[in-house]
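To fix ideas, we quote verbatim one protein's residues and fold tokens.
>
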Amino acid sequence: MPVDLSAPYPTVAAPHFGLGHEESRRRAVEFADRLALRRTIRDFSPEPVPMDIIETAVRAAATAPSGANIQPWRFVVVTDPALKEQIRAGAEIEEREFYRRRASEEWLAALAPLGTDHDKPFLTTAPALIVVFEVHKGAGEPRPYYVKESVGIAVGFLLAALHSAGLATLTHTPSPMRFLGEILGRPANERPYVLVPVGYPTAEARVPDIGRKPLDEVLVRK
């Protein structure tokens, strides 16, 4: 039976946490300080990640707000080594073209200090890959709204949840990404949005010593 999307949702009481200003302030500072430690990792340990931790992080991501509450996302968790090999091969084909022909000189110059290139070993060394798909209208499914915005918020929730669990991540967006849907057997209405390797950093892992813009440069008070 089709769902009547025009019917109003039943309501429940809004959550009230009653923390008080000081506790709210403490939690906000603690959360911001924890996220300030998050870094993009490219050197992953082969140590496996318990699947229930990844599933809980996806559950957190799936609580994100979305246009008309359609929730237009799908999270495909890949741990099979053969599939990871296929994904790496497909990504490196696209990345080789990106670095050789598709990227502008300005873009390549911006990437140069990070030392990245078409070689993507983290796609096979990371114990898990989470491929996030946008879900567009398909047979028997409602039309989604603000898809990219909704999925982007969900990915932010996902990264924060994985980081809070002590896991390292990387956001990878080879372009185009159609090969991901083909390798993973996803329907045509699911479009790849981002590929997130997940795991623990190696003991020798290093990251660029970069900073963040100061608060007064990103925050405008009126």
